[in-house]
Structure to design on (395 residues):
């Protein structure tokens, strides 16, 4: 019985030692994994030290430029202090990405013209530039003009028939008012337009009309604006009595100034860009999660999901790179670097704490293994002595 009991105890101790050694091996594997994770945390921190972000230039006082983080709002929304006019084009569809209010107005005015669209974006209603009663019958008696904003006059006949985009009613009112003292450049462009109508060449007519309206609106923009501000009640809409009207509620203190002119020009150019792109997408639909901040902007630019377009007076809308645009710059993201540093310290401390715990566990297991080994050696000696005594008895 003594030898059997000792033998069973010896087997138990041996199994326990094997179990302890197995746990120690697991801890060593965890320490190796921790070392790998420490390397990964360090690499992530090093990568964060190179974090860059895009910024857009705004015109500051004294001709200096102030740079703000590039977001959809700061780059693509209207702001008269921003240095440059930009827009994003979705590379998959080719459509321009615009603010929601721009999208809604464009959907209502996509078949109209850029000037009506711009006035609408400034807060005017269609009735402010397309009067219901203005002394014209809307039949197009004057070629190229009728009583609907962005309306069209039919030119040609049969299969050759097409529509010509006309001036708005307010533009016609201002044009008629200055018929006797029309600006020479405007008059010259108008005469070219009138001559183009005789050719019935659609492209030639459209080009001549666009050039005429461009110089006309540029010259008489303030007068057109002030005429649209008038509260036009029925019965006083004739050209000789329009001045009797009051001011549309909400426009009493909104005199025409450089800010109004700048915003008007911005929306005219934006309409041209949307037309060139074949339409637009609202930002709320494009960015489903609602994030349009600096990180979002940097990511969609760097991954090529969108292209950045900038308006140039001579070239129109052209694709540009943030690296080549004089209005944008790439700088170190100090905030991201500080966050990365804090995260690195936190993660490193957490890993070091885990490593210390594993070292303690490993030390405890080694102490236990040594004790078990000593006990096993002792039992082994007892068994050996018992066997020797037993063989002596039967020898």
């Amino acid at each position: 019985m003594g030898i059997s009991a000792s033998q069973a105890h010896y087997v138990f101790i041996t199994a326990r030692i094997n179990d302890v050694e197995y746990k120690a091996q697991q801890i060593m594997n965890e320490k190796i994994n921790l070392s790998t994770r420490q390397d990964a945390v360090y690499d992530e921190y090093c990568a964060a030290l190179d974090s860059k972000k895009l910024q857009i230039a705004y015109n500051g006082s004294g001709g200096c430029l102030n740079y703000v983080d590039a977001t959809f709002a700061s780059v693509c929304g209207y702001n008269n202090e921003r240095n440059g006019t930009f827009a994003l084009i979705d590379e998959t569809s080719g459509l321009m990405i615009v603010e929601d209010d721009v999208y809604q107005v464009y959907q209502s005015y996509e078949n109209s013209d850029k000037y009506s669209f711009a006035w609408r974006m400034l807060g005017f209603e269609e009735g402010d530039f397309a009067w219901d009663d203005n002394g014209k019958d809307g039949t197009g008696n004057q070629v190229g003009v009728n009583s609907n904003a962005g309306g069209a006059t039919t030119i040609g006949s049969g299969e050759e028939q097409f529509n010509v985009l006309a001036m708005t009613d307010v533009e016609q009112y201002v044009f008629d008012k200055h018929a006797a003292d029309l600006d020479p450049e405007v008059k010259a462009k108008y005469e070219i337009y009138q001559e183009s109508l005789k050719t019935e060449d659609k492209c030639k007519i459209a080009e001549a009309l666009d050039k005429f309206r461009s110089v006309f609106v540029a010259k008489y923009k303030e007068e057109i604006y002030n005429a649209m501000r008038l509260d036009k009640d029925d019965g006083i809409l004739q050209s000789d009595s329009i001045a009797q009207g009051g001011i549309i509620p909400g426009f009493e203190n909104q005199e025409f100034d450089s800010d109004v002119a700048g915003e008007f020009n911005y929306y005219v150019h934006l309409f041209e860009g949307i037309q060139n792109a074949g339409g637009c997408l609202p930002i709320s639909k494009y960015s489903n999660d609602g994030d349009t901040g600096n990180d979002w902007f940097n990511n969609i630019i760097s991954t090529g999901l969108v292209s950045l377009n900038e308006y140039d007076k001579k070239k129109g809308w052209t694709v540009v790179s943030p690296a080549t645009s004089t209005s944008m710059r790439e700088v170190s993201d100090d905030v991201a670097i500080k966050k990365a540093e804090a995260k690195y310290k936190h993660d490193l401390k957490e890993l070091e704490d885990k490593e210390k715990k594993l070292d303690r566990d490993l030390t405890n297991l080694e102490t236990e293994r040594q004790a078990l080994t000593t006990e096993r050696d002792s039992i082994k000696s007892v068994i050996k002595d018992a066997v020797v005594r037993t063989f002596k008895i039967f020898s």
User: Anything to note?
Assistant: The longest strand covers residues 52-59. The first helix runs from residue 2 to 48. The CA atoms of residues 89 and 96 lie 4 Å apart. The two ends are 20 Å apart (CA to CA).
